[in-house]
Amino acid sequence: MLTKSKVILITGASSGIGLSTAQYLASKGHRVFGASRSQPENVTFEWVCMDVTSEESVKSAVQQILAQTSQIDVLINNAGLGLAGPLEETTDELVNTVFNTNVLGVLRVCRSVIPIFRKQRHGFILNISSIASGMGLPFRGIYTASKAALETMTESLSMELKEFNIQVCSVLPGDISTNINSHRLVANLREDSVYAAKFSKVHRQINDEVSHAAQPIIIARAIEKIIHTPKPRLHYTVGPIVQRATVWLRIILPQRFFEFLLMRFYGM
Ligand SMILES: NC(=O)c1ccc[n+]([C@@H]2O[C@H](COP(=O)([O-])OP(=O)(O)OC[C@H]3O[C@@H](n4cnc5c(N)ncnc54)[C@H](OP(=O)(O)O)[C@@H]3O)[C@@H](O)[C@H]2O)c1
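Structure for SDR family oxidoreductase, as requested:
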């Protein structure tokens, strides 16, 4: 239930989870600034151009928002990029692009918004991570590493910002049906790659899972509840029970048994 209208900045608002969340939050009466590189059409929120990989672009977008409103209450760091491929054949360039977006991108936006939050003496940062952050998935080693980094960064930020009345948490979605499949970077395999057969099978499975997954509105609804929670938890998993359960299974099962189950799941 909406208790108070908030000014919200959400990154990655041109597609998928970000687009759905921006539209949903706007429909609930919040003033939403949705940021991305490409401009979405026919949306009910205010769009700002922002490339999270550019400090200048982030600063200019935040200035643009501040020129229109005197405050920002909530920052949702959602912009993100997938990457699939065997680690051995993943180039530095791909790794840099993913970390520059999924980890440094979040840091850049935080660096621009935290001073505003500190001045206001309140703020809420919600990072969109992934259930996959808690485990290395085959052929998604860099993506899962970037989300694991985001998870620990969330925990550090939470402690550092507590004294300024800034709350920090992360949402870990399971598979959600978005455009992440078509936007995902894919490593170029060598012609004689020893991974070709297994990778192509697992890659197909990853794409299928996302195509048949839940709609992004489930994340939007969860986020709306979280931003109204007076004392939010540090991490929220959202998605099918089986996927949420893997977070606990990873902790309680013997490590090699968990690995065996994952490999069985991916037919490896
Ligand atoms: N879908 C899933 O199954 C799933 C599961 C767990 C976690 N997630 C996470 O959820 C978040 C959203 O993903 P999605 O599934 O909604 O994917 P998506 O449909 O591909 O949307 C990704 C969004 O990120 C934006 N983006 C990418 N690079 C950017 C950059 N350099 N600067 C600004 N914006 C950028 C894109 O906008 P532009 O290209 O227009 O800039 C787009 O709006 C990601 O962090 C993803 O890792 C997704």
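The chain has one domain: 7-265.
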